């Protein structure tokens, strides 16, 4: 590949014309490269004479144009003046070099005004590479909303001005047109200051994982009508095993993996972690907090407490087989509105360091006892569960807005890494709360050294909930032979787990 050099005096109209044509070519041809050498009128003659003598050229023109070959010994190949330069461009690039005389005059005047700037050596500004996000399965209507939030997320922005880039992918090649449509919608959005350079469509996960910082997996593989349960789970198992194989080969060590929009979320996470043994265990997580978030209007109506004063209820369970929204351990503010407390940001998605000042927070259990709509006839808390059978008739949009809102909050805290909040997510169970070890379950989690870990300070749900989870998880783990990675490779586990 060549780099063209254009040397001359800014007040010369031919110099401005040549530079203008070269800039247009660079904008339209990604491989076209040029540089300018600017001299004052007094300097140019002596400089050109000396330079041409060194190159053994006999020429006296303004501008002077030559080219060099990249990765060569630096030898220069003379092209000539503006006429020879334009003939060269017409032959190689079939470009129209004509320009109105009035425009040429104006360009020359502009160059004279910018002379001091052009004479100053411009040191390239180093910009860190952009934070790279890959979303696979990105064909749902809510993908645009998710991408728009990620592009604007302050915590994702690469230091040094690198920004954020997002890759869109789907394993079904027939969905390529849908991905292109989504890309164009995002490129045209007002918030997207980088335009189409921030969004790319890739043909394979391995391409999307190249230098990837965050890998988001969207998808459901929903249970088809009249499909037997074990066949449905087998399909999910095969899909996660395939994805694990790709992650083992191409996933960067630093890359975080987030699963969302799945009917068998915890099962898929458990399979993925079992098979993707080259991926760090605590770099894999699933979104579950939205199950609690969508119950806030019901709790607010039943208790008379405003939604801004309620924190997102904890979500427990093996999401996809059973999940439980723990109403009685919703935290609310009784010493003033959450809006009066600057530390309580977006209470609907997470709990803001409730242990710091317990005088301003209270569990909802006392209010629940007064609300018949949220308690059973004997006054006990009613856990809301969703089993596999009920999911078959459930009509919902994958990756709904509450789920995206929770996911963005999780990503924000994950990359910020300050450990101030508690939220619900599906993470590796280390036995905290008496949950089964070695599987992924939804539970209250807290950031610890850049990793989401179970928050043992949070009160557990009713014992019956734990017992129910134990039985369901043990059956599935035995049937699909899950959990062996963590018994066979204790060295890769943190010391507090391996002990």
Characterise the protein shown here.
The structure is a single chain. The protein is built from 18 helices and 19 strands. With 499 residues, it is of the alpha/beta class. It starts with a strand and ends with a helix. The strands form 4 sheets. Strands 5, 6, 7, 8, 9, 10, 14, 17, 18 and 19 form a 10-stranded mixed beta sheet that branches. A 4-stranded mixed beta sheet has the order 2-1-3-4, with helices on both faces. The chain has a 3-stranded antiparallel beta sheet with strand order 11-12-16, with helices on both faces. Strand 5 (131-136), helix 6 (143-152) and strand 6 (164-169) form a beta-alpha-beta unit. The longest helix has 22 residues, at 229-250. It is elongated and about 95 Å long. The model is unreliable at 337-343, 376-399 and 488-499 (pLDDT under 50).
Task: Label this structure with key terms.
ten-stranded mixed sheet, disordered C terminus, Malate dehydrogenase 1B, four-stranded mixed sheet, Lactate_DH/Glyco_Ohase_4_C, alpha/beta, oxidoreductase activity, acting on the CH-OH group of donors, NAD or NADP as acceptor, 499 residues, oxidoreductase, elongated, 18 helices
